[in-house]
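Deviations from the work plan: none for this task. Representative record:
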Amino acid sequence: MSGAVLQCPGYPEDKLRTLTEDLTCREVQAGTLLSLMGEPDQYSYPSVFIYGHRATGKSHVLLTLLTQLQLPYAAVSCVECVSAGLMLEQVFSALFGPDAASLLPRSPSLSDFVRIYRQACVERPARQTRYIVVEKAELLRDMEANLLPALLRLQELVDDNVTVFLLSEIVWEKFRPNTGCFEPLLLHFPDYTKAELLHILSRDAHPSHTPELYTSYINILLGVFYSVCRDLRELRHLAALNFCKFCEPLEKGEARESDTHKLWKNIEPHLKKAMQSVYLREVSSVQWEQQQMDEKEATALRGLSAHAHVELPYYSKFLLIAAYLASYNPARTDRRFFLKHHGKIKKTNFLKKHEKTSNHLLGPKPFPLDRLLAIFYSVVDSRVAPTANIFSQISSLVTLQLLTQVGHDDQLDCPKYKCAVSLDFILAISRTLSFDIVRYLYDFL
Amino acid sequence: MEKHVAVGECVSQVQRVLRERFCHQRLPDKPVGLESQYKHLLELLRRTAVHGESNSVLIVGPRGSGKTMLLRCALRELLELQEAKKNVLQVHLSGLLQTDDRIALREITRQLQLENVVGDKVFGSFAENLVFLLDALKKGDKSSSRPVLFILEEFDLFAHHKNQTLLYNLLDVSQSAQAPVAVVGLTCRLDVLELLEKRVKSRFSHRQIHLLSSRSFHQYRDAFRSELTLQDGFPDSKFSQEWNLGISKLCEDKSVDEILQKHYNSCKDFRSLHSLLLLAVSRVSVSNPILRAVDLLEASRMSSADSKGNILHGLSVLELCLIIAMKHLNDIYEGEPFNFQMVHNEFKKFLQRKSHSIHNFDKPVVFKAFEHLLQLELIRPVDGGVCKVQREYQLVRLMLDHTQVMEALQRYPQCPTDVKQWAVSAFG
């Protein structure tokens, strides 16, 4: 994968050569960027918008170029800058040094920024293009409305040789304000191909093993995860976590490096398990490594999903089941489910339903308190008095966010609720009570 | 070797000259195609600067139509007049920077260099303050004060300030002959007068200069040629001749004509032409010292790329499957919003009936993919996502249309055949 060395007049050649090595698989993008930037003393386009998926090297390429070529630049991330003032301060002190930045008032407005910038420019006119890099630019939309349009035409406002780079995962169409603005140049960073991912990930090979072994490991890893995730950072994390497991048969002497099939059989189920836990961030990497150590315990994987049931009081469980039934069954079917002698209901008519109306697709419906209690009394096996005890359990279910109250909570007369738990959760609850909830659900008849 | 160095030097000179044109919006010698507007504006400004008449005018035109360029050209010519040069004061305000009237007033004080005159004085009202500022500009003989040009960029944004105090006072001064001022507003909103309050509107002179570009394709192509042509001052005359020859050849090229036609049809202002030309010119290098049609083609490809298609290209197979499921839901329910459960249900149906290449994924894994799509804003929650609904029942809408999905599928690398099949025909 040795592309041509980056070329651009005005920059030292040896720097460009080292750059080419640093930016594997991104030579084309780096070349385009360089040619857009032009020679250091030439004007560059006022604003450039770079978009592409997470971990496609947007910041990496840009910041490496700027640091290696020793160009004056300021890099800010919108995640860190909660206000425009903070961002402007950071930009200014990066471009002109902390001394000049002390001229700025506290939490400067754009007007202050531009004024002081112009002053500083008079003292130190730009001999090279100054660059401002704004990462996670999608957050600019939530800041003051004038910030984004002003940044886009900053060159005109401060009358200096300055270029603003905006980096984001989101396409430019979602940024454009109502009345339009200065249109930046758009530059796309495409995702890495599978071969490129393989190439980049293989560079992490541990010196104690041969590179070929590591490459074959990465191949297996990509085989499992590639159809789900193309995020280089995520893949790298997964690769690092599971490599010891992959090497285990080698250390025990059960397999040699050439037994690819054996190694594959060993690691594959493991990776699938990792997909259910590590990928979903249900366990931290430390936990995952510990589990790998204790081979015995590893059979019972303790992720969040294993903890999905919460310990609740006896009646609360029934209340929750009643709430679930009330949320997911139409009210007209209550007679059929909960009345012993419900008279004649035509079976064919009753079962006639369309998939469109399945409540498990549409989500829970609100129900009044009376209906909840009626169902509760018919599902609970013993006789319960409607005491304050029961009502307080309902409100504690609301506090636990297992139920949500619909409408205002100042409605004392007949409050309405919705059940906010999933089917798996309620199945687990009813199993502890040996209550067959599926029999009572209209959707599963 | 000697020759090579010279070529490198020339190329870098060309880049310098053209970049200043395209990036820095260097002013042309005369505004092209806007002669009557130019004359009108210049005459107006001259009356203020020389004869001390007050005036107000709005320059209205779409973005990139050359409002600022027109104004700056007029100011440049105005300041060449001897009596204007030593007399006229300029105040430049921009709606983007001066976001409220207090900031604006401070900026006016600063630009008129009256900070030490004002000192620590406290003013009762905005109007009092402004009148004080203008009085301070009166010359020794009291009868005539120095004319001030107020230039308000993004004029429409000033109309959103509280009570429109700044606009009211500026226009009031321009009406009541207190001091000679000219208020020039630049805006891209045609309906800008509707934004003004009645009392503000009645003080405005209702002079408007419209820059509605009615450039024909012929003029557009001429602009293309003149923007790229090097002028006589270029250091190496041989190179500049060759370059200009190359440009005129380029203009006769059929493929270039097509590209220009395409761009002209989508947007005919100068700024979009400039960005196209910059992309093309940035490809000129020592090994490739003249602009070729290929460069222009490549530039046009870059500037007109479908960005959503690009993003779709980088999705994982699972995420693509979800997009297809959403597309089917859109077809079935005619664009009604849907939730994750429905999408998952549709996806499961596909897995059960047709799929050979996609394995079953756990629901949380699928949900993570769904959330990634949300984050990319390819789908958007219907009601801002604030109400207390479980996340899987949150209603969302797909922000892509049918053709975009199908096109992305065609371009998708190693797309499994059964997924492609599924996209074409839903089951059941």
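The first strand of chain A starts at residue 47 and ends at 52.
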